[in-house]
Structures are given as C-alpha cells and as structure tokens.
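SEQUENCE-TO-STRUCTURE ENTRY
===========================
What this section holds: a protein sequence and its matching fold, both as plain text.
Tokens: labelled as protein backbone structure tokens, with as many entries as the chain has residues.
Question of interest: how does this chain fold, as expressed in backbone structure tokens?
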Amino acid sequence: MPLPDFKSSEPYTLAIELELQVVNPPGYDLSQDSSALIPAVKDDIKGGEVKHDITESMLEIATGVCQTIDQAAAQFSVMQQSILRAAAEHHIQICGGGTHPFQKWQRQEVCDDERYNVTLERFGYLILQA
C-alpha cells in the first residue's frame, strides 16, 4: 500500500504535529485509552485535528496549515487545553512522545486503521515499540 502524497499548500505556510503518550497515574504505564479521548475533544477542535497514532496509547495532534506561527500556536493551545481537560475527566494523563521508559510492547494495541495494520503485518513487533 503506497503512502498518500502530501497535500499541497501555499508557499511559506506551516503546520505543527506532535505525538503524545496516554498514561495511567499513579505508575504512568501506557494506557490504551486514546479512543476515549478523541470523541471527547472533537467538538472543541476547530482548526487542526486530534487522531490516533499507531497504538491506542498514543495521540497525534496537528494544526491545520497556518499562515503565521501565532495562528499555529493558537490552534495548538486549544488542542492542548481540550486534551488535558478530557484526560482529567477520564482519569488518565498525557506526556510527551518518544519511547516510553518501561512499556511492554506485547500489551500495545494497534489502532484499527488499514495503514497501521499493513505496517504491523510488514514490521511485526517493531511497530508496537514506537
């Protein structure tokens, strides 16, 4: 399955994307609850999007195409506040992306997405360690 082309945009524009981990306090192990957060923030997000990123323990937030850094920062701020509110309501927390220090890759659930499922078939457990 080939990767889709990037959407074209006007010159000198920008967008910001960030992957976040969903964790359970108090031990901060990865949580498989990103699916609960996405619908909880959907109505708050007017610019950009919040979606899954490979596993149920990750969220991807991305601004829309912006003309200025201030516009991107404003979109990002709305997303951040909305995600933190929804996480608190679901008794989970959010932390920065990267490799989780003590995650068990065997417990990671890949999101139900054709692209992620094809990647899982090709690369096996490596995708679960992302």
About this structure: The mean pLDDT is 83. The radius of gyration is 15 Å. The domain at 17-128 is CATH 3.30.70 (Alpha-Beta Plaits). The chain has one domain: 17-128.
